[in-house]
């Protein structure tokens, strides 16, 4: 069944109502060809319409946004162009946290009556008060629909069986992948992750059931491969066609992507924004894997300078700021990610109009280490460590302060196939070439560093700032 003229509908109806039964013809490359291959002007027209509508909705239903905008005399009617939209104040995690403190338990930004809330989710909240998310049923269905549409772009089809290997609890990542796959008509296997012994069980289940698609974090997929090999199983035997990832850098890091593809014999797809900006798949690679596409008619993403907060031109580096365009229950407008990326509008062989982040999200401002004036991200080191033969998958960056100088020690594990001295020289030289900085290197036996079943924390900051 072909749904005609979706583009036209999107210019007249908000929130959009999508045909719940629609899926494209199986050989069709695009879910909605008329939007995905529209001209940039046509795409901007859709974005502006949706931006105006979601702002109006937030203003009419969210005391949080009324307060925020009234304070500076801003009314949604003032936004007549996407340029005007660039002046709308940014919303931060701290703003949302403060609102939750002042208006417990759900905050003052839930724009549907409590009776219409369908799902509650939250952050795992290791520091501070966890953030609560309330989703209405229509929003939940639209999220599923947009995720299905985006999954289609990297080749998922209804004949696939999708193995969900991340925690099925508060984490929105797992649920977003699950409902998207279901909406696409695929079979799903919500296995989860994080329990003791679960990875060993995963190995035997995978051998038996043979899912064709994997979803989880890149760190976890490499840990799973290690566990499989320990049990004498070649990860290629699982038979994954596609592995898609979100939650942390990795799938967008060149050498990690290569390792995953080689280890499993699959294609490795990078994806993911933030729980707050769900539908979080709005940043996702297509089958060509040229960096994540920004599906701008789903979530309007701008990349802005980390200090001035002004939009950076294509080719520049900045922080993604997200505005989901179809959320009625808990809209966020210009949500600050704190992540770092570069963007481009150079065409992709897939023919979609969406710009791209060619290196994905490669760091967070607050995780960045400055060593002798050079900014260093864990993913930069990851790219090198994972490209060197004779090293295992895991590594850590340990930052210390000696006198007034910061030192970074890169800890990595050896496979025992090459002499330590030779490895140290190569790691040091490759890191210096890429970053211009001298790192200390510490080699460790395989299996020394802690593994994660979820998002890895690879920077350990031991600097004592009191002295
Ligand atoms: C990433 C990536 C990526 C997320 N490359 N860094 O999984 C998607 C959503 C649900 C998620 O992880 O949300 P959460 O838990 O709020 O974390 C968001 C942060 O995770 C985001 O700001 C990034 O720092 C990181 N992240 N996907 C690199 N593909």
From TrEMBL:
Tagged with keyword Cell division = no
**GO MF annotations, alphabetized:** ligase activity
What taxonomic ancestry is recorded? Bacteria, Bacillati, Bacillota, Bacilli, Bacillales
Q: Name one Pfam family in it.
A: AMP-binding
Q: What is this protein called?
A: Phenylacetate--CoA ligase
Gene3D superfamilies on file: 3.30.300.30, N-terminal domain of ligase-like
- Species name: Effusibacillus dendaii
Task: Keywords in alphabetical order, please.
Answer: Ligase
- Keyword Ligase found: yes
Domain AMP-dependent ligase C-terminal: start-end pairs: 373-463
Which stretches make up the AMP-dependent synthetase/ligase domain? Answer: 123-318
